[in-house]
Amino acid sequence: MKNVFLYSSALLFFSLPYHTAVKYIAMVLVFLSGVFIIIKEKSFKMDLLNLILLGFGIETLISGVLHTGELKKFLYIEKDLWIIISGFILYRSISLTKDEIIKFVIIPLIVSSIVLFFCGLYKYYILHDYYKYHLFTNVNRSAIYAVLTLSFILPFIDIIKEYKIKSIFIIGIIFILITLMFLASRNAMITMIIILMLYFIYFSKAGLKFKLILMFIGVISFIFIYFNYGWLVFKIHMLTHLPYRWDIWKAGIDSYIESGNYLLGIGTNNFRSIDLTPYISNWQTHIGSGHNLFIEILVENGILGLGLYLTFLILIIMKLKNCKNKNDVFFKTAVLLVVTHLLTSMTETSLMKEHGFLFLAFLGMSIRGIEKDKGKCLT
């Protein structure tokens, strides 16, 4: 059954950004085989970390049902969040070796990232897509997905000895970096720079060959910037402007205060029902998200929902703080993932659909890896 879980995971991480039957079949196989393994090995932890995350999911369900009064309808809406939560619990409960993660998670992700890159070019240059260049859904979600992938892959480079595998990793990282620059999401560009600085200053054991490869990446990046200078300058200029976001946040906070339901908020999925016209003139009436994960949770799920999710993140950070082996690859991936999540959450709702699943699945693998050696990490 472990092989079914591994190969299904490989298929899932390759197909995750695509809205195809393959993704959903792979997801079902991952969950069924994963649950079987957890039951057989009795590896589910009924600890505070899992309970808080499950509590957050239950709270969002209660908040939504109380405001809609339709359990069946809201269960359908809520399914994405529960898939995301289940990703963390599954991959935290099932022990994967570093080689298994490289073979069945990272390599499929790299191949998928390369395919997505060329799909994005096709959309932009051939189809003249309305949303400009993006991988799936929209630019910001695509960028969050790409920067999470980068954060998870980077620390594994130092533990790979085989030349061919390391070459695949480096090629994948080049494609991801170019993709992020092409997407030109302001938040993701800043996050990418911070992640690379953290990695090279604190985590990397890069030798001369790797530094030469980085120089090559720098040359490729310079060529890319030269041919896309105008677009990038425009996006960087907009870093000093947050068009509409301040007004969106104000509209959300005002709606939350006016509701008077400080404990449970205005109801899960109800941010999109807020009328923005009193705050933003000559713009759309409603928007699909709050453009800030923490504000959106507060507005929709109240103090209780935000408190539960922040507690989950604080428990993760405390676990990392207590980890004695700071050189372990899983410690490094967990740190980079948390930093990426916190940064991207400032201007986007980063806990939804593909990138939400990617974040918590990666985090689950990392925490499991840290917890495997109790002598090196206090749990």
Question: Your description of this structure?
Answer:
The chain has 379 residues and is an all-alpha fold. The protein has a domain at 1-42. The chain is 72% helix and 0% strand. It contains 14 helices and no strands. The chain has helices spanning 2-15, 21-41, 48-68, 71-93, 98-126, 139-153, 163-183, 186-203, 208-227, 229-237, 245-259, 293-321, 329-344, 353-372. It starts with a helix and ends in a 7-residue tail after the last helix. The mean pLDDT is 83.
List the helices and strands and how they pair.
Layout: H1 2-15, H2 21-41, H3 48-68, H4 71-93, H5 98-126, H6 139-153, H7 163-183, H8 186-203, H9 208-227, H10 229-237, H11 245-259, H12 293-321, H13 329-344, H14 353-372
Helix pairs in contact: 1-2, 1-5, 2-4, 3-4, 3-12, 4-14, 5-6, 5-7, 6-7, 6-8, 6-13, 6-14, 7-9, 8-13, 11-12, 12-13, 13-14
